[in-house]
Design brief:
SH3 type barrels, alpha+beta, Pilus assembly protein, PilO
Length: 321
Amino acid sequence: MNQREKILAGGVVLLIVAWGGSRLWNRYQGAVDARAEALVEVKGRLDLARLEAHKAQAALGELDEFQSRSLPSERNVARSEYRAWLIEQLVAAGLTYDDVKSTPGGRTRGDAYEALTFTADAVGDLSAVTRFLYAFYHSNQLHKVTLLKLTPMEGGAKVRLGLTVEALIVPGTPRATGLAAGESDRLTLASEDAYISSVVGRNIFQEYVPPPPPRPVRPPVVRRDPPPRPAPPKFDDAKYAYVTGIVGSGDSYQAWVTVRTTGEVLRLRAGDPLKVGELSAMVERVTSNSLVLSTEDGTYTIELRKDKSLRDAVTASDETL
């Protein structure tokens, strides 16, 4: 076998080995996957079995409770004792009963329970009906009202009560006689009086009319006095006081100031005080053609024949500053 044939033979052997290894790997991987799927299935069945066991345990607990609340296992004893209990509750509530009957036969549901039916007719006011219903639902009996009919009587003070009740006998109850003891916590309000307060005083035979919506609360009206009007500005005679003349010579001059509103003529020399209207000043000096006034705010010059009042001259100087 030459070199080429050896190489070809080696290649064929490698192909055979790779093909065989691939088949073995696929078989191994398939077995692993199948095992994982089987584990998942087994786990699912186990979880389902645990769930069913939990449900069965809960059902057993409920069954124990139902058996403890059941009527006595003996049907005739159950009819007699429960009828006597209904009469006792009607009388204790203040109702006058006409009759309390136990309907022959009974409704059954396989082996789960047997339902005994009772009917009652009674007369009383709404507070008595409320007391009876409170005692009924406050009892731990395994019973329920299937029909409640109230008919108002003349005068409206009393009603006629028509009542149908079902009470259950659960197989396996340990009592052959005697009703279930204890109180139920199914009621919402805390006491019998609370229910009477919520029922008595209403006319339950009229259609309910909701109360009108509350009126919107209007905000209080706050009366505010208008702000006081500003006081009118005081009349200032200085607006109508003008330098109408200057007399004298050298360093001695006298200014004449005419107040047109009063007709007064003021003759002023240097050092004289000046008070005209709202203007208070001191004559600082008088020149041949001007009067110089000094105030707390500064010094002001009023020229002769410029047709400016003393106030205009002071105001113009302030605005210039």
